Amino acid sequence: MGFSECATFEPQPFVPMDMNDRPLAPMLTCSHLVTRTLHNGKVGWYAACRIGDEAARRKLAEAPVT
Question: Which residues, other chains included, contact 37 with Cβ-Cβ below 8 Å and sequence gap of 6+?
Fold first, then answer.
């Protein structure tokens, strides 16, 4: 699923930098995007949604605003 299909997508501008601290092309990311460590003793990181999986995002999007 890409950002355009996510009901809880909150655009967040991002300007990446190259290894010499020069700006690259700006892009949009999501304010809910976080990094998490890999499981099972593996070393590394992966991108994840702070809200949770697709079901959790759908539930939040459908919740009534009070």
Answer: 44, 45
